[in-house]
Design brief:
heterodimer; A: about 130 residues; alpha+beta; N-terminal domain of TfIIb; 4-stranded antiparallel β-sheet; two-stranded antiparallel ribbon; about 30% helix; about 15% strand; globular; B: about 325 residues; alpha/beta; Rossmann fold; 8-stranded mixed β-sheet; 11 helices; 8 strands; elongated; Trm112-like (chain A); Trm112p-like protein (chain A); protein heterodimerization activity (chain A); Trm112 (chain A); Bud23-like (chain B)
Chain lengths: ~130, ~325
């Protein structure tokens, strides 16, 4: 699983969703914290695709990506998306490499609100809930 | 029937890499779904693939130049997908529990032969209506406003179709049902085509949408013709509802039959009331008599004991015996 997917995922536990909203419109259950096992993080270079990078940039929750990147210690991102980032090929390239090339192969995704762990095995997160969590 | 996660086990999953027929059919349906999503031309989009399985539909998305994320409930199918080296990310997730994505994540969604699984209660805790509602509500949430979802389904009967389209309408989707090859038993395919929110996409696709609106008039006319000629007893065709397909016009080709979902028009109710009234006065009596005579003839041909025909044969009994 790559960071672009992690940037979209939220905790689905019902009790958590019911209490996770903050008054300012944020969500306490987002982003899921990436906790890789030893050697569970992998870097695989993929060919840069400028079209995809441009379309993905406005889609990303920048604050969440910045937080995750800092926690993993893989990149130091500016606080906000710099102005004119869409035409800055170097910047696009670095963001693309960050969200598409870093794979979580083995580890867990932790909900920061309820602490539910979603295990990731062979790069596939298991988001299935138990009956009592729905 | 076994639940999806059991049905698509190792042996079934292997077919999706070895059987060229399955691969072919899946790829065709995936391409049709992509066509029905009517993405703005020239844009690289981010697509959700529900029930991605071994990633056959994902390959179609990748070849069209889109990035995608897939979900599936069968770990075996995902394993096959990993072995094939799918270009998108995959998640193990049950769509009946809701899709675990934040609001406005995707430019569109496709699904090939997956959504009908929601209609079955395969576990004691499963309530199909609740699962279908949870699925469509979460799908609506994770799509961008104006984004489209094209879901290919294999409904077992009209009730399932009704259940799915009613739940989609309730979640806020507009759109309708496209039936490809309506007169073929084998090639007939149902596509639920849904638009999240208003017809206007919130990104630079306004031009594409207005072009779709212009083409809608012609397409709606063509589809109304084909629906009246096709004798498909399962579906209710309503000319009034046909107008509700407005923005979807461009996505429909003449090979498809378009049925808009939505409330039944008042004229439909009128028709049904009239036909019920006719039933009561025995307007179909001659047909009943012929049917009885035909059945008796069949019994005689088989050599079974049968009463001889008389003027009373096939008549209604008096309401009450006094």
């Amino acid at each position: 699983m790559r960071l672009v997917t992690q940037n979209l995922l939220t905790c689905q536990v019902k009790a958590c969703m019911d209490t996770a909203a903050t008054p300012d419109g944020g969500f306490l259950s987002y982003p899921l914290k990436v906790v890789p096992d030893a050697g569970g993080l992998k870097q695989v270079a993929s060919p840069f695709d400028e079209g995809v990078a441009k379309s993905i940039l406005p889609r990303l929750d920048w604050a969440a990506l910045r937080k995750t990147a800092a926690e993993l210690g893989v990149a130091a991102l500016p606080e906000e998306v710099p102005a004119g980032a869409e035409s800055d090929a170097g910047f696009l390239r670095s963001v693309y490499a960050l969200v598409f090339d870093i794979h979580l192969e083995e580890g867990n995704l932790l909900c920061p609100h309820c602490g539910r762990a979603y295990p990731v095995r062979k790069g596939v997160p298991n988001m299935l809930l138990r009956d009592d969590e729905m | 029937m076994a639940p999806a996660e059991v049905f698509y086990d190792g042996t079934e999953a292997k077919k999706y890499t070895s059987s060229s027929r399955i691969i072919d059919v899946q790829a065709q349906m995936a391409h049709r779904c992509i066509e029905l999503m009517a993405l703005p031309p020239g844009h690289r989009c981010f697509i959700l693939d529900i029930g991605c399985g071994s990633g056959l539909s994902g390959e179609a998305l990748s070849s069209a130049g889109h990035a995608w994320v897939g979900t599936d409930i069968s770990a075996d199918m995902l394993t096959v997908g990993l072995a094939r080296g799918t270009p998108g990310d995959t998640l193990l997730s049950d769509m009946g529990q809701g899709l675990p994505f934040r609001t406005g994540s995707f430019d569109g969604a496709i699904s090939v032969s997956a959504v009908q699984w929601l209609c079955y209660a395969t576990q004691k805790s499963h309530q199909p209506y609740r699962r279908i509602r949870a699925f469509f509500a979460s799908l609506y949430r994770c799509l961008k406003r104006g984004a489209r979802a094209a879901l290919q389904i294999y409904p077992e009967n009209a009730a399932h179709l009704e259940m799915l389209s009613a739940a989609a309408a309730k979640a806020g989707f507009r759109g309708g049902l496209v039936v490809d090859f309506p007169n073929s038993t084998k090639a007939k395919k149902y596509y639920l085509c849904l638009v999240a929110g208003s017809g206007e996409r919130d990104d630079s696709a306004a031009a594409a949408t207005s072009a779709a609106g212009a083409a809608a008039g012609a397409a709606a006319g063509a589809s109304a013709d084909s629906s009246s000629s096709a004798s498909d007893g399962d579906l209710k065709h309503s000319d009034a509802a046909m107008e509700a397909t407005d923005g979807m016009g461009s996505a429909m080709t003449s090979s498809g039959l378009v049925v808009a979902m939505g409330r039944r028009s008042s004229s439909d109710f009128e028709k049904r009331r009239r036909s019920r009234a006719q039933d009561r006065v025995g307007a179909h009596a001659p047909a009943r008599k012929e049917w009885v005579l035909r059945k008796k003839e069949q019994r005689r041909a088989k050599g079974l004991p049968t009463r001889s025909d008389s003027k009373y044969t096939g008549r209604r009994r008096p309401d009450r015996i006094t």
